[in-house]
Amino acid sequence: MEREFMEFDVVIVGAGPSGLSAAIKLRQLAIENDKELMVCVVEKGSEVGAHILSGAVVEPTALNELIPDWEEKGAPLKTKVTGDTIYLMKNEDKATKVPNFFVPKTMHNDGNYIISLGNLCRWLAEQAEALGVEIFPGFAASEVLYNEDGSVKGIATGDMGIGKDGEKKDGYMPGMELHAKYTLFAEGCRGSLGKELISQFNLDQGKEPQHYGIGIKELWKVSDEQHQEGLVVHTAGWPLSESGSAGGGFLYHIEDNQVVVGLITDLSYSNPHVSPFHEFQRYKHQKVIKQYLEGGERISYGARALTKGGLQSQPKMAFPGGILIGDNAGTLNFAKIKGTHTAMKSGMIAAETIMAAFGGDRANDELTEYEANYKASWAWRELHQQRNFGPAQHKWGNFLGSAYAFIDLNIFNGKLPWTLSDPKPDYAQMKPADQCKKIDYPKPDGKLSFDKLSSVFVSNTNHEEDQPVHLKLEDKSIPIDVNLEKYDEPAQRYCPAGVYEVVRDDEGNNPQFVINAQNCVHCKTCDIKDPSQNITWVTPEGAGGPNYPNM
Does this model's pTM top 0.90? Predict the structure, then answer.
């Protein structure tokens, strides 16, 4: 069956902050200049915001530029930061509050808002549609289309109604081709098409490998006595410090007696026995965190990888026929633990660059001027100023790394005449299991800590079960013959959703590697952290995956 196609001026993959900002800016510029412009956004989630997960404390810089009257238009930025504290956790009972003077200035949150990024994206989608943008939720972009000259022609959405056996079921629907003069890829961290394009066009040539963390987050409802609307708490140290792993926690008080709590585990950790999910469950029992959650109700759970390599790891963003924007290109500022404003700005710059190209009747060529436009922006200057924060954390740990950041940022304003290097990929950091200490994680109490399956349940994750597994093994023997033998198959632990299991017979023999793909929350950690780089995450059928409310 031949695929139908639709023609647009610009196709955008992903209805996150960068993709929606690009769409809005394109239509704003078209209306200002009385130009016809067809813009389409394709989104794999069942609705806009369904797959969006972030802390999130948002700096409104980019939103102020894009929609200056956002407050009058009802943007869901309701909770201003009113308190900002950082703790160095020593163990479950002890934590030291870091004096404000010693905090790197990038981590101060004056003028910022605690929000649900999913709700912000839903609102941005409304603004985009009001300007004439077409948004197609529930359709996963599964394939990059190329012209004969090798330039990007657009994308194809995935076929619907294919069984596990690869055969067409009743109700089979072939994917739709979306052709464009330019295509923007705004898939978020470790986008499957972005990964292909980086390889296809050698966009990472001369760059350091990208670095990642996995962020695990819960939304809680708490009592009036526990709630302090506007309070921001960040932490470093325990429990990750016990295994020599890096990362940090957060706890934010938003409106309606809700508290956001989460833990980011750097995926550079070396001990294969580490389970980011179980580290997060322990984290909630720490005295500082526990006081705000005890007796409350967990409402939702989610997990998502995030890019944290900074400018050193940022690939070339433009290529023939398209641009990588947002976290697909690694625009997150890890020194601020924020990426929404920089992602939005990258999309806005892409829109301005494309509109200028349309003025010259160009199409499907390489927008080489994008790099210069990006480098002239405050987003690039901000990332350049704070480029050494992540490598310093990896080299010297949270305490010494933060001390370096204080000197670099607070004293020298990021102008020290060197750029630190972090050349080893996260997956290559893992040591053999027999060289590392095993970790005995406590059982969940069902009050503050929980198991993986009950957590996946409250993420509202759902996939059509009779479809091809979207977690592809390049070599099906590696999980048992290599990863189990050498690393005690860490996929059992780094996955925060119980997707991967090693199952044995009644005698404890004959291990089999099992993939429970229906549990997948689309965090992409397996694609990043597998020490053999044997797992590839591809898009399942559109609308599958989590359905995050207010996350």
Answer: yes
